[in-house]
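Worked example 2:
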Amino acid sequence: MNLVEIFKDFSSGKSIDSPTMVRVLEDVFRTLIKKKFTTDDNFNIIVNANRGDLELWRVREIVPDGEVTDELSEISYSEALAVDDDYEVGEECYQQLFLEDFGRRSIMAARQTLISRIMDLEKDELYKQYTERQGELVLCEVQQILKREILVIDDANGRELVLPRVETIRGDYFRKGDMVRGIIKEVEMRNNNNPVVIVSRTDERFLAKLMEQEVPEIEDGLITIKGIVRIPGERAKVSVESYDDRIDPVGACVGMKGSRIHGIVRELNQENIDVIPYTSNTSLYIQRSLTPARVSQIDLDIEGRRAKVYLEPDQVSLAIGKGGTNIKLASRLVGFEIDVYRNNEVEIDDVDLEEFKDEIEMWVLESFKSIGCDTARSVLELNVDELIRRTDLEEETVRNVVAVLAAEFDDVDGAVPSKVAVPKVAVEAPGAETPTAKVPTVEVPAAEVPETAQDIKPTETAVPETRAEEGEMESPVDEAFVEAVEKAAAPEEE
């Protein structure tokens, strides 16, 4: 039995050192002796890993023949002479034992015990080794792809690790033999206390280790990562701080033309990463965390850990982000619940153009959206001629759209004037030249203006929109008004 080679194999392959292996062998053989002799008090076990020695010795006191009272601790003089002729009464007799003396069944049982103890040691060593390595970056080779997890082999020591599907980034696709990087997240004890090492690619520490690998200033301690929040595969925010005033922490992390951050983005399947400078000023920190939106004002509730953020209407969508990702990450990063408000109250009452899809055809709305008019007020801010020129729609279509949108805000447009100024009307006598004197204007009290289209009576006449229409339409002025004008112009005709 070449124990030296066996110990070397265990030390390299099983990560079990020689002293531990010697202790295990001693315990196994003492168990074997107890089964045969009921006690191991008078037995010596010698295991020398350096020379490969394994010896079992039984020690008993030599007594005269016929005076043996305890066979486990005493041996007769005649039996001692059979072992060695030099023994005398009163001395200790050392008798060597061999494995063959224990029988086949006992040896097989000892073999199973040894295997079980070695497996337990290996589990304990694996658990201890990877527990100490939690949070470290690990390079693995894909071994087997299962439905809910991927079995990978640690490239450093050949151990089998597990990469669950829930710990992979959206868009990850692996084949057998591919190399994959991840973080040692935790070590779980599963069936029969078997340690299972979990590898993760969605943990925040994975991004931190990638940045530490790509940015030398972080590895040297000149720049520290103060906080990381992620929505794996979509977006991440990293706050960094520099201990050297000469070093820009954001610029150092991004690199020249994004050379440093691009490698990390590719590893994370094009995950957008926002790197912001850390500050102890809470308001400024919240403002930076909402990048790329520009914040106008912030109201803080320190006790309730809430923040009211006011922005311009065009910045609200940037602050919220796609699916609310930007504001969620910002809230997690700063530790405040952030509520977003618009600055202009009028804009709050604005209506999106899609709300009018029941009254206006969708292709018409798309034409207005294509020129940047996404809301009703953005359309009403432009005049009709400008809308016609930019949308290339017919004038009638544009006017109809403007009328529908304007009707939405009739209740907000303000009070209706009590009097209406009627335009000057010049009455020309037949066969006479056009008078040079000015015709006096007369203000007529206006009738009550209807608020809605249903309030308009059939007898009321609409005001013409163009000069051409004004000549064609019937004059809304009554006969009394015409007679007053004619009398005012009569002296000049004479």
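Residues 3-124 form a domain with the N Utilization Substance Protein A; Chain:P; domain 4 fold (CATH 3.30.1480.10). The radius of gyration is 47 Å.
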